[in-house]
Each structure stands twice: as C-alpha cells, then as structure tokens.
Amino acid sequence: MNRIETDEINWEKVNMLIPAIVQDSATGTVLMLGFMDEEALKNTMRDSEVWFYSRTKKRLWKKGEESGNVLRVADIKLDCDNDTLLVSALPNGPTCHKGTVSCFDYELETNAFQELFAVIAERKAKMPEGSYTTSLFKSGVDKISLKVSEEAMEVIHAAQKQTKERLTEETVDLLYHLFVLLAEKGVTLKEVTEEMRKRAKK
C-alpha cells in the first residue's frame, strides 16, 4: 500500500476534511465518497481498513463497523492538488447501506459480474478453508485453465444438444471459472472492460 504522509495534504484548503473516493480494487467500480480527517487517514493506513470522519455524528467511524462490510485497503493515492484521496479497496460485501455494491447504484439490483468477481478476489485474498474457489487457486493456473476448457466444451454441447436453460447454466459455470483464471493471473474486470470498450470503437 502506498503510504500518504499527512503533511502532504492541504488540510486548510479542505477545511480539515479531505474527500476520499473509494474504488473497488478488483473491478474498478467507484463504491462511495467519504471524508477523512487526519486521524481517520492515520487509522486507515494503520489498519488497512477504511476509516472516515462523520460530518453528521461528529466522530470517527470505520466503514462496516456495524454491518461487517469493511473496505480492505489495497492502495491510497493523493491527487495532484493534494486535496482529494483515491482509495483502492476490496469490499467485504455491499458498500451502500441500501444493499447495493456501490452508493452510486440507484436501484437495489447489482452488477452480477462485478459482484462475482469481487467475491472471487476476496477468496483469493483470504483463501478460506472448505471453499471450492480456494481449492481452484491452490491447484494452480494449469488446472484452472483445464477447468475453463472443460466448461467451454459443456457450453458448446449445451448449445448443440440441450435446452436454453441448460445453456444458461453452463454459461454461468464457464464465466465463473474464467473469472477465477483472470484473478489467478492478476487480470482485473476493469482491464477486461476497458479492452472491450477499445474494441467497440473499431
């Protein structure tokens, strides 16, 4: 994690509360905007979990202190004017109190791809025992690649011989294993999305 020296920040300019934009480290999704005072920033760097200063309650608070949906910090950057932070973090569940992935979602529906990729990234970071995803990561890239190949063949078979419902199910299995492979190789969903956008312009 990139460490920010608190004296780098123009505290007077931001009235002692610096805006902190939080972005999902796995998907690139903007999750929320909060404000940090100097102590909240120090706590964030100390704990590697995001802290804010509540302007309404006039106190420090750790994101997820009640819900458990903490934000685990991957990196922190200070902008060129020294008055805004960009926090890259891995969310442990929905970020918004309304149950959405991001506070910028206006409906309760979430982006299923982003949600799945975030769960896979969390499994890779924590490697919980008994998790199928953990077992895939432990097996290595060759075994994961083989599973992707097998699932791709299942999709082809379903398309040729089976029902629409079965094709949908097999497609989900393929996407899951493909996302595991991407996570194993350090490829983010944001990078995949950016490449798709480049190709769409051609």
From TrEMBL:
Pfam families: PRA-CH, PRA-PH. It is found in: Cytoplasm. InterPro entries: His_synth_HisIE, HisE, PRib-ATP_PPHydrolase-like, PRib_AMP_CycHydrolase_dom, PRib_AMP_CycHydrolase_sf. Residues 113-202 are annotated as: Phosphoribosyl-ATP pyrophosphohydrolase. CDD domains: NTP-PPase_HisIE_like. It comes from the Bacteria. Residues 32-104 form the Phosphoribosyl-AMP cyclohydrolase domain. Residues 1-112 are annotated as: Phosphoribosyl-AMP cyclohydrolase. GO terms for cellular component: cytoplasm. It catalyses: 1-(5-phospho-beta-D-ribosyl)-5'-AMP + H2O = 1-(5-phospho-beta-D-ribosyl)-5-[(5-phospho-beta-D-ribosylamino)methylideneamino]imidazole-4-carboxamide; 1-(5-phospho-beta-D-ribosyl)-ATP + H2O = 1-(5-phospho-beta-D-ribosyl)-5'-AMP + diphosphate + H(+). Pathway: Amino-acid biosynthesis; L-histidine biosynthesis; L-histidine from 5-phospho-alpha-D-ribose 1-diphosphate: step 3/9; Amino-acid biosynthesis; L-histidine biosynthesis; L-histidine from 5-phospho-alpha-D-ribose 1-diphosphate: step 2/9. GO terms for molecular function: ATP binding; phosphoribosyl-AMP cyclohydrolase activity; phosphoribosyl-ATP diphosphatase activity. Its main location: cytoplasm. Keywords: Amino-acid biosynthesis, ATP-binding, Cytoplasm, Histidine biosynthesis, Hydrolase, Multifunctional enzyme, Nucleotide-binding. Its EC number is 3.5.4.19, 3.6.1.31. In the C-terminal section; belongs to the PRA-PH family. In the N-terminal section; belongs to the PRA-CH family. This is Histidine biosynthesis bifunctional protein HisIE. It comes from Candidatus Kaiserbacteria bacterium RIFCSPHIGHO2_02_FULL_49_16.
